[in-house]
Amino acid sequence: MSTQKAIACIEFEIARLSRSFNPVPDRTFVMGMIELAEIAELIDRATANRFRDALDAKFCERNDFLKRTST
Hints:
By secondary structure, the protein is an all-alpha fold. Helix content is about 80%, strand content about 0%. It contains three helices and no strands.
């Protein structure tokens, strides 16, 4: 897999998290993708950390939204 393809796949999965019905397993899946891409040296540590930060922000946003709508 190429670096560009790995980055595109991770960005796509992070974006999909905003429509997730259950963001916890989706977050775990995307975190695994990031870890695997970093271990395979498709992305560097700084890029992986930016993806982790974006993932955490998207997860918190979606989780908060779901909590608000369930009450």
